[in-house]
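It is time I had a proper look at our fold encoding. Can you supply me with one protein entry, sequence and fold together? It will help me judge whether the discrete encoding reads sensibly. Leave the record below and I will have a look:
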Amino acid sequence: MRITGWRIARLRVPLKVPFRTALREVDHIDDRVLLLDTDTGHVGHGSAAATAMITGETHASIEAAWRQHLLPALRDGDLAALPAVLDRMQRAMAGNCSAKAAVDIALHDLAAQAAGLPLHRFLGSRLEGTATLATDLTISANPLATMRVDTQAALDAGYRALKIKVGKHPESDVETIASLHADVAGRARLRLDANQGWTPPHAIAVMQALESRGLAFELLEQPVPADDLEGMAAIRAAITTRVLADEAVFNARDAQRAIDAGACDLINLKLMKSCGLAGAARVAAVAREAGLPCMVGCMLESPIGAAAAAHFAVANADLVRLIDLDSPGLARFDPVDGNVRFEGPRIVVGDTPGLGIRAIAGLEFLDP
């Protein structure tokens, strides 16, 4: 199976409610979708999320990276030599991890189709049939009254793990979190995510205030800026809640640095940070060697990338303890007809070859 061409499209899906963190606010999923064509008629699908505050990429930079560097490196690429094709693509330019992730996902989709295997089996899983994952749901950083309404709606929908976005209003974090903890009343596990919005002293003060009240949380995600490993280590030493590294870990080298610094108890694996499935596997290998469990997460992105991440989670079930693939659940509808179904808190991973994508509603193809 050889690559003969490609197409680029925009996929835009409205959210049920605006998504707000300490870093940004958006009301749509807005991804760029890559379709790789082959001489056998198979099509590989990948997608890239533009998350400028985290990866430094925009829609324009993603498209330019594909057209000018990454896709030309694939011309006549043979999927029987997938590692060589992936390496050639990765070496075509530095950085641009989300753009590379989309290419990596589409290539893996094709290779799995060629092997007649669902993506998770191609990645090493021995599971037969379907798999079911349980994801959390993000509660955006809003006024407390809105967050309480959103939390109740999530509980009513069956979610048993909630990620609470904090850090946008540091002065009110303690009371906001304590109020939501009381509302949940043990019906769901709570995960806190400051998206780099705190300082180490503030994080320690907030968490110690909460823990002194006997309030328990499953984890605290990336409380301080990504480059402050010393601050993360200080926070970790001062609180009992586990610390999850997200923006601090893009690649295997970052993972090793965070582990060596004592900065985290867990690592959040995201394909958009790690340049795709191959890069995420390298990060996972470092975490596995160190005995650190992982979360598999996503950006605010389309079900294409989230589906690939779900397959990755199934393939690495020995390591992945937590699932944060809620982006499709935040959208008003799922435009992708593939082998992964996002059913509220349940993610059902099917067994048709590759990502099993048969159709994508609403694709807007862009000029070559």
Observations:
- The mean pLDDT is 96.
- The first strand starts at residue 3 and ends at 20.
